[in-house]
Amino acid sequence: MSKIKDGDRIMVGGFGLRGCPDDLIDALVASNKKDLTIISNDLGSPGIGLGKLLSNNQVKELIGNFYNWNTDVAEAKNAGKIKVTLIPQGSFAESIRAAGCGIPAYFTLASAGTELGEGKETREYNGKQYVLEEAIYADVALVKAEKADELGNLVYCKSARNFNPAMATAAKYTIAQVGEIVKAGELDPECIVTPHIFVKAIVKGVN
């Protein structure tokens, strides 16, 4: 957690409670880092997972889309305690992928003609309006994988893979919580999803 500063933009993998790096989140809660921008599909549930950060008043802004199962988010937003930026889920995933690929922005049909597209640049292609979405970058990414080797190559478990691989590429510093760490050369190269070049630290997790 020493790599995280007050005010940082933090990406956190997971969809709901699946593929969520709970041990790293608990460590972030314990660190009491403040004014964080949390970039994640959702914010867990009230007092569970990422929801702990909101309960502990560590969140300044949320960037994501699926907050309806944590009612604390709506209450905090309506009370003016946090800022919430909603992005369609597909655009959210693509904006993170774009950041990892060095693509600064792209045009998409998603959100065109809706409130989520208001105030954004639009352009017409083949008779349809497209919205300009910018890439989403982070200072630190917290991701979860099933297994890593000592170099930091990552293998994921089924649906727990979700946003983790893309987020690992889109941050300046990526920390991976893993269930098992093996020696270099023991992983099947065909199963490695995130190459070690993107991973700065690996932590043997409990969850």
UniProtKB/TrEMBL annotation:
InterPro entries named in the record: 3-oxoacid_CoA-transf_A, CoA_trans_fam_I, CoA_transf_BS, NagB/RpiA_transferase-like
Which NCBIfam families does this chain map to? pcaI_scoA_fam (TIGR02429)
Pfam families in the record? CoA_trans
Q: Which residues form a coiled coil?
A: none
- Which key words are in the record? Transferase
Classification from the root reads: Bacteria, Bacillati, Bacillota, Negativicutes, Acetonemataceae
The protein's name is: Succinyl-CoA--3-ketoacid-CoA transferase
User: PROSITE patterns, per this entry?
Assistant: COA_TRANSF_1
Q: Which GO terms describe its molecular function?
A: CoA-transferase activity
